Structures
1.
Amino acid sequence: SSDVDVLGTLLDASGAGLAQGRGGPHADVHIVSTLEAGRYYLRVAAGGGTEGRYQLRLDAEGIDR
């Protein structure tokens, strides 16, 4: 699915790309909602603490699949 493609693009080395500098090489990523084709809202918790939690909007346009 496109959700898997997007997550595969965001995560590398078990989430190290997202969690770098936020408590260790680990990140939990959850798709909160897909409001329209190609736009995703993701909630990311990096490093296992509340300081590393943030939400981001991702537009899938231009992502290599």
2.
Amino acid sequence: MCKRIFLTLVLAALPISTSQGENWPQWRGPNLNGVSSEKNLPLRWSTTENIAWQLALPSWSGSTPIIWGDRIFLNVADGNDLYLWCVEKAKGIVLWKKHLGGGNVKVGKQNMSSP
């Protein structure tokens, strides 16, 4: 449930037209203020309204998705392993996955921040 809500919020933040858009290279965006310079973004969304696509994740993530060009990079936990996923922005297709390491165990949740 949490992972679907998180991903839906992330996808809702993307413009419906994904052909062009501002890169979001880090937490809180390019200017570190959490503000996008994009125009005409939707003000309302639901599980069906203003959502370009959805992508099921094996678990929830505590990091900020990185948007660069036509790619989205996600930090994804799967069991005790941590992966970097590269997703095509227009269609939500996973292009590749890179294993980053093991031992991804939540202890007090402080380790759930962006690397």
